[in-house]
C-alpha cells in the first residue's frame, strides 16, 4: 500500500488494545478547511483493505465538499470490525479520543455501520463529532437530505437527457433500499415514476412496498440491471458499476446514492461509450454532508435543504461541461472540484491579522 503516493495529507492509525479499537483516519485535503467525513464501521478482511478504503473515501470527500460549495476539506475514518458484534461504548469512546487528538483537522460524522447514537457516544470524548441525534442538538438522520440530493441530481440528469426535470412516467431501478434508497423511492413515487427495487435484506424491500404497493420487487441486482429502465440508482455499497454490470446495463442514466460506484476509472469511459449518462456519486449524494455541516452553525433543516437543492444546478453544470469538453461527467466533476480547491485553497497564503 503506497500511502505516501496516495495524495493524502495525513493518515493516522488508531490502536487501543484494551477496547479492541483498530481504526484508520485518512485526511486527504485541508485546503478548503478542516477535513469532514464519516466513520465507517466494517469487518475488513485485511488492514491494507481498510487503509485503501479510507484513502479512497477521503479523496471522494474532498471532491464532494468542494463541489457542494462547503469550506471543508475531505477525510474519512474506518473502524475495523463487525458493527453488529464489535461496536462497544469503550471502542467508540477510544476512537473519539483519537479524533480529539487531531485538534480539529478531522471532523467526523456517520457512515455505513455507524449511527447518530454512536456519534453521541464518540462526542463524549471529542468536540469534533457531528451528525449527532436531535435530542443532543444534532441534525439527526442525514439520509433524508442525502436522498433529496440524489433526487435533485436525477432531475438534472432528466433535464439534460430528456429536456424535462422530472421522473414522471420514467422507470427508475433502485438497488439498495435502506435509509437513503428508501427515502429516494418516496421522492420518486411522489414525482410519478415507476420504481423497481431490490435489496439483500428482504425486510427493507417489504418496508418500501408497504408504503408504496405499486413498487415492483426484483430478485437481485444482477436481474435489476438487465431490466429495461430509464435510470439505474445504485444505493448500496461501492463498486456497483463494474465491467460486467456496465456491459448489460439497460438504463440511459446512472444516478444513485452509493459512494465510490465506479469499480475502476475506466468505467466512466465505458458508460460514456455506451451513451449512458453518469451522475458522479460524490456530487449527487452530497446532501448528507451539507446537512451535517449545517449542524456546526446551529442546525436548520430548511437552510440545509435549500443548499442541498443546489445540487441540481451543479449537476447540470457538470453535464454541460462534459458535453462541451468531450469528456465523461466523472472527469468534468473532478476538474470542477479541483479548480475550486486550487483557487480558493490558495487564499490560505494571504495572512489575516490576528
From TrEMBL:
Swiss-Prot/TrEMBL keywords: NAD, Nucleotide-binding, Oxidoreductase
Highest taxon listed in the record's lineage: Bacteria
Chain residues that bind NAD(+): 176-181
UniProt-recorded Gene Ontology molecular function terms: nucleotide binding; oxidoreductase activity, acting on the CH-NH2 group of donors, NAD or NADP as acceptor
Location of the active site: 76
A single BP term in Gene Ontology: amino acid metabolic process
Domain Glutamate/phenylalanine/leucine/valine/L-tryptophan dehydrogenase C-terminal: 140-347
Pfam families (UniProt xref): ELFV_dehydrog, ELFV_dehydrog_N
CDD domains tied to this protein: NAD_bind_Leu_Phe_Val_DH (cd01075)
Family to which this protein belongs: Belongs to the Glu/Leu/Phe/Val dehydrogenases family.
Protein name listed in UniProt: Valine dehydrogenase (NAD+)
Lineage per the UniProt record: Bacteria, Bacillati, Actinomycetota, Actinomycetes, Geodermatophilales
Amino acid at each position: 500500500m503506497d500511502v505516501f503516493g496516495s495524495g493524502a495529507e495525513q493518515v493516522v492509525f488508531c490502536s487501543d488494545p484494551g477496547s479492541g479499537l483498530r481504526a484508520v483516519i485518512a485526511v486527504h485535503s485541508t485546503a478548503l478547511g478542516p477535513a469532514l467525513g464519516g466513520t465507517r464501521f466494517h469487518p475488513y478482511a485485511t488492514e491494507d483493505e481498510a487503509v485503501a478504503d479510507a484513502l479512497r473515501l477521503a479523496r471522494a470527500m474532498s471532491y464532494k465538499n468542494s463541489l457542494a460549495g462547503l469550506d471543508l476539506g475531505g477525510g474519512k475514518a474506518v473502524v475495523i470490525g463487525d458493527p453488529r458484534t464489535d461496536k462497544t461504548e469503550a471502542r467508540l469512546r477510544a476512537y473519539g479520543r483519537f479524533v480529539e487528538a487531531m485538534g480539529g483537522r478531522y471532523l467526523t460524522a456517520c457512515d455505513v455501520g455507524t449511527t447518530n447514537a454512536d456519534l453521541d457516544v464518540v462526542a463524549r470524548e471529542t468536540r469534533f463529532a457531528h451528525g449527532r441525534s436531535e435530542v443532543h442538538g444534532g441534525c439527526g438522520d442525514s439520509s433524508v437530505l442525502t436522498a433529496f440530493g440524489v433526487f435533485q441530481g436525477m432531475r438534472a440528469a432528466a433535464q439534460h437527457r430528456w429536456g424535462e426535470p422530472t421522473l414522471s412516467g420514467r422507470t427508475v431501478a433502485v438497488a439498495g433500499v435502506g435509509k437513503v434508497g428508501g427515502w429516494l423511492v418516496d421522492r420518486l413515487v411522489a414525482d410519478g415514476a415507476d420504481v423497481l427495487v431490490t435489496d439483500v435484506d428482504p425486510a427493507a424491500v417489504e418496508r418500501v412496498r408497504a408504503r408504496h404497493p405499486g413498487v415492483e420487487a426484483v430478485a437481485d441486482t444482477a436481474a435489476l440491471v438487465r431490466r429495461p429502465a430509464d435510470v439505474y440508482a445504485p444505493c448500496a455499497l461501492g463498486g456497483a458499476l463494474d465491467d460486467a454490470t456496465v456491459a448489460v446495463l439497460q438504463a440511459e442514466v446512472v444516478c444513485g446514492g452509493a459512494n465510490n460506484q465506479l469499480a475502476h476509472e475506466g468505467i466512466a469511459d465505458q458508460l460514456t461509450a455506451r451513451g449512458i449518462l453518469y451522475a458522479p456519486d460524490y456530487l449527487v449524494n452530497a446532501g448528507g454532508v451539507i446537512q451535517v455541516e449545517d449542524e456546526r452553525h446551529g442546525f436548520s433543516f430548511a437552510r440545509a435543504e435549500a443548499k442541498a437543492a443546489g445540487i441540481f444546478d451543479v449537476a447540470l453544470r457538470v453535464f454541460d461541461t462534459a458535453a462541451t469538453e468531450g469528456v465523461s461527467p466523472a472527469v468534468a466533476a473532478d476538474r470542477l472540484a479541483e479548480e475550486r480547491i486550487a483557487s480558493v485553497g490558495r487564499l490560505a497564503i494571504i495572512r489575516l491579522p490576528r
